[in-house]
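Question (not urgent): is this output format expected?
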Amino acid sequence: MATIAKVGIDSGTPLSGSPIARGIDRWIFVYMAASFIVITLTGFIPDSVMKIAAVQAGTRAPFPLALHFHAVLMGSFLLLVLAQTTLAATGRLDKHRWLGRLAMILVPALVLAGIILVPIIYHAAWYAAQSAPADARAELQQIVLRRDNIMLLQLRIGILFPLFIFLGLRARGKDGAFHKRMMILATATPLPAAIDRMEWLPTTLPVSPLSTDLYILAVLSPLFVWDLVRTRTVNRAYLVWLGLYLAVSAALYSAWGTDWWHATAPRLMGV
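Got this back:
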């Protein structure tokens, strides 16, 4: 009973209700963390296998070292979130707090890896288009234009992901309900990188990133709906996340595919 009470206080979720409801209160965060890993693997494994085959066939350049670092860091972070939610669900909050310190190392490292990786990938596409034979140049230039727009998604992740993590970590020990939810919401923010690789999904790309944003909302819906049913209120974490997400996304949508952005993106990348 003491363990259950401790979990309930930290989660900010009422303990009244059936044992099943109380179990969901604790384990739905584990489900969310596990679903993020499944989504990431579903998006990246087929894409990676295809690209590795192209590298082995000599039709694609080898992966840059920064990409390997980024993949290891992101995988480590997703496993950390899964471990953290499992520790909280099982009442081992002392270990949860101790392990949470790793986020303060992984998140800055992830942001730094992204800052290094984005220009490397962009430069590869840009110079390939510039040096390509005339018959292949038009197709490669279209790839560069798509890279311009993808950079907008990467910028949104680069701004919002560390911001949401900061807000979530700042609330630890003060507002357990906000902390728990904001960490999940923050982890969902980079998922477009995996979702957009699932070419079998209906999509609005490359015209608009609307489908990507709708898929993110769908991924988060189990936690939001359960909270709404269980507490009859909308936790402040959702409002903060949505407000900041919409504010940054407004700039993204206004720039997407415009001549101004296609002229600005190369300058930002130093080409």
